[in-house]
Design goal:
Largest sheet: 7 strands, mixed
CATH class: Alpha Beta
Number of helices: 5
Strand content: 15-25%
CATH architecture: 3-Layer(aba) Sandwich
CATH topology: Undecaprenyl pyrophosphate synthetase
Number of domains: 1
Structural class: alpha/beta
Order of helices and strands: EHHEHEEEHEEH
Shape: globular
Radius of gyration: 16 Å
Number of strands: 7
Length: 210
């Protein structure tokens, strides 16, 4: 395992490109989501080994529900499967999303909007499931805090799939995050992707505006 002098405490993961990967490989769009589960666990193990304290994975958003029914069912199932598998690992799990919406999977209600610890709790893992940035921020008017208040500031965001945008990913916590783009699609994840991101981060000047 390669060693680094500077490790981001909190990393955001935007695992984009599942549908494009499926089409490129002669599959239906919906099939790409299943192939995105195992890369997440490889990355989870790498982050623990490197000493990352927290990671937030983008599951699916309110806007993703505009997609075809078979795709919605596929990415919802992939999120449920990923979370349930993680429940058997050494992690402190938090699922953030609008549970009042019928799009929120009932299987994940037991993890919703509260942190649940498993095993040795080696890392905090957050999943954004049926997440919407407006829903997150509008809670300020009601309860004087955003819905994702338990998730701390992000140091580094890594996005697969080549797109250069946040897509509504935790706008408050992303304020000072450095942003690393990987052109390969998420199901094509390679360990080198993560190491390349960490190497790039070594030269980032983290001043937080100071």
């Amino acid at each position: 395992m390669e060693s680094f002098k500077k490790i981001p405490s909190h990393i955001g993961i935007i695992p984009d490109g599942n549908r494009r990967w499926a089409m490129k490989n002669g599959l239906q769009k919906k099939e790409g989501y299943y192939h995105g589960i195992n890369p997440g666990f490889t990355l989870y193990e790498m982050m623990i080994a490197c000493g990352v304290k927290e990671a937030t994975f983008y599951g699916f958003t309110k806007d993703n529900n505009k997609r075809a029914v078979d795709q919605r069912e596929a990415f919802t199932k992939a999120c449920v499967d990923a979370v349930e598998l993680l429940a058997n690992r050494d992690a402190n799990l938090l699922v953030i999303g609008n549970t009042d919406s019928p799009a929120f999977p009932p299987e994940l209600m037991k993890y919703a909007n509260k942190r649940v610890s498993f095993g040795r709790g080696l890392i905090n893992i957050n999943f954004l499931v049926n997440y919407d940035w407006k829903w997150d921020l509008e809670n300020l008017m009601k309860e004087k805090h955003i819905m994702s208040f338990e998730i701390p500031r992000l140091d580094l965001i890594i996005r697969w799939g080549g797109q250069r945008r946040l897509s509504g990913f935790l706008p408050v916590q992303s304020t000072y995050a450095d942003f690393y783009i990987i052109d390969d699609y998420w199901p094509s994840f390679q360990k080198s992707h993560f190491f390349d991101a960490l190497r790039w981060y070594q030269d980032c000047d983290v001043t937080l505006g100071g």
